Amino acid sequence: MTAPAGGLLAGAARETLREKLRALGFDEVRFARVGPGREDSLREWLAAGHHADMAWMERTAEKRMNPDLVLAGARSVILLGVNYWSEASIENQESRIENPKWARYALHEDYHDTIKPGLAAAGRLLEQECGAAETDYRYYVDTGPVLERGWAARSGLGFRGKNGMLISRTHGNWLFLASILVRQEIEPDAPLRKKPLPPAEAEPAGLLCGKCTRCLDACPTQAFPRPGVVDARRCISYQTIENKGIIPRELRTGIGTRIYGCDVCLEVCPWNRFAQEGRRVLLSSRHDLAERGLAEILALTPVRFAEVFKKTAVKRLKLTGLLRNACVVAGNSGDRALLPELVGLAVHEAPVVRAHAVWAVRRLAGESPASRLLQEARAKETEASVLAEYSADL
Ligand code: SF4
Ligand code: SF4
Description:
Blueprint: H1 11-23, E1 28-33, H2 40-47, H3 55-59, H4 61-65, E2 76-83, H5 87-94, E3 101-102, H6 111-130, E4 137-141, H7 148-154, E5 159-160, E6 166-167, E7 175-182, H8 214-218, H9 236-242, H10 249-255, E8 258-260, H11 264-267, H12 294-298, H13 302-308, H14 318-333, H15 339-345, H16 351-365, H17 367-373, H18 375-380, H19 384-391
Parallel strand pairs: 3-8
Antiparallel strand pairs: 1-2, 2-7, 4-7, 5-6
Bound molecules: iron/sulfur cluster (2 copies).
The site of one iron/sulfur cluster (SF4) has 11 residues, from helix 9 and helix 11.
């Protein structure tokens, strides 16, 4: 590499860095210049309460809007995409429609863990090739105080769809994004828009959506107050993963068979037609999760839960969160054979599980059989949130 430490990395030297980063397993490598970003949309989203109870989004907002607060002197950001589209995974899940549905990304070992070694190797590469010190860069995969989708749009990696996701013209909606903030100045890649925006202007959603509104129309819980904006409070992904408490009753039927996350607004996107199998260097598949039946999940013990979901992102939901979601899916399933498990869960130690189990029993059994089935559980119940489920309108 020819660029001196701190000098502009451009031309052939930049392309060599791109190739070496690709060789580490990143399917997309793009560069953006760090500049003053006017992220009004983030401010508005937070002010409207669309982040639900994700207080960390508020706490990190300033950093997200000002990369200098994350890495003083940051001049560039390297955007890295890992393609997780897999035909085998889709076929496996679609051939088992009787089973609960998982967001596609969840059918892997936790991607934070599998992508991080690639980022650590990328950091070492920056040290060797650009003369960077360890303190001259910071990397994140998805959870850092970095507006990855905004930077990715700026770098031309893709565009922000009306579904709020970063959409790639070659990978569709199926990219994990990671980023490295660096003090090294790197010549930026061109964005997809022909007429670049002023440096401080944020990329609006829907650049290459045209008149399409499929994602907005298909959302089962009407979580889009407007194109490009997701109200987490109504989003199944938030409710089944981030929310640790009671799922609002009015959203439960919309959850359908989705036990963990939701891909509806991604799956319907026509840009997915270009998606191809990735190299999967930084991923480890766990397609077997899609083979678990609902009865098996409802009967999970803590030991079995730890065994089955070891190394996956689902383990962070904990057994109580998964049982809660499984109760919702069971309530929507119409399968009365699940009633014995659900009645058992109506006396589970966690109130959040009991509440959703009661809802599911009432929904599956109908009012008077449910009252008989739940008689014992109700007699013991003292928790207000659970008692509310016995009398709620269904
Ligand atoms: S993830 Fe599902 S619930 Fe959330 S906005 Fe998309 S379609 Fe709606
Ligand atoms: S489904 Fe249509 S509107 Fe939604 S992101 Fe894809 S192209 Fe855009």
